[in-house]
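Can't paste images in this forum, so I'm doing it all in text. The chain is below; anyone willing to post the predicted structure tokens underneath?
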Amino acid sequence: MKFKYAIALTMGVAMTSGMMTSCDDDDDETPNNGADAATIINKIDASDTLEYNSKNKKNWNAYMKVVANYLKTDATTLYNDWTESYEKGDAYAETFKNAGKSGYTETFSSALNATEQIVAGCSDIANEVGEAKIGDPLNLWQSGKYAEALYAVESWYSWHSRVDYSNNIESVKNAYYGSLNGKVAKNSISGQLAKIDEKLDKKVKNAIQNAIDKILAIPQPFRNHIASAEALAAQDACAELKDILDKDLTPALSKFSETTCEAINKNYVEKVVVPTYKSLKEANEDLYNSVVDFTKAPSNAGFETLCEKWVASRTYWEKSEAFLFGPVADMGIDPNMDSWPLDQNAIKGILVNGDFNGLNWSGDFDEDSEEIAAAQSIRGFHTLEYLIYKSGKARTIK
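Text version of the structure:
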């Protein structure tokens, strides 16, 4: 995921600048616990009066369809890049499985190098959950920037933050176990490591589970408990997991033979990555179809259904974040689908003018391009989340 605070937070805070000032200046409302946080957050929520109604439903429906279609397209592209062909060459799955072999050394110099990438992906998302997803809101809150802190909490419209973060660590577990069923596959990093260093294998497993448990121990919703002791504990658990992956597990991989790494990489691709992306593709197709159905006959029950479909699709995405390398990164698919925070002012403008051209971008992906970043901040999972959720519940027709 690409976090773009310079763009999105500036826009988000502009919506409630007067209220943010009052929160910053009123000593009686300096938050130090969940109840105080809720008071401030309720004021911010009250400032967002945008509702789905008969006057805006045409553009609202169209916006949901466009965003859902982009999600479907991006998920399909990602799956095809791994299974059919990437950049007019072999499928990326073949590139990964054949790492180090003749004709495949340009991306990965050896099978071990590819196995190291598996662990690096796990380390990256453990760090992102702790330092960005939990840490960024926490740092803003502790510095007295309460509105910015709220807008920095990913998935706060749906109150799905803790589940998102725990699913991110579940993706680490899946990558390490080499399976999606919670069992350790024979040809997995865990399965092979246990043969030579059972103590380290257990240490990694415990660190993964501890991070999941600590995240889910944060009181619900996370946005009301940004600076809680439980949030701090979750951040520490993610840091500990990253430290173990980097300093203990990565060096231990050098004990594996190339043949062992080849078996690990093959299992990882076939039992973890490709099945996850296949499920994501199918779930996004289902989500899009549900959006189309809703636009034909809008109803409160329809909004409930969209939220259920969003959660289902979102789950597969979050459980893929331990492998944010290759096509998903190089082609800009990650920020296409999951940029956060959003440019809420631009989203509201689109709901008024019905101009969806700004969601598209073309050419080679450049993560430093402001034009591309602006497009990505008004599409993806979180834009659809904003359009179907409000204050942790499905929207209703007004």
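The first helix runs from residue 5 to 15. The beta strands are 389-390, 393-394.
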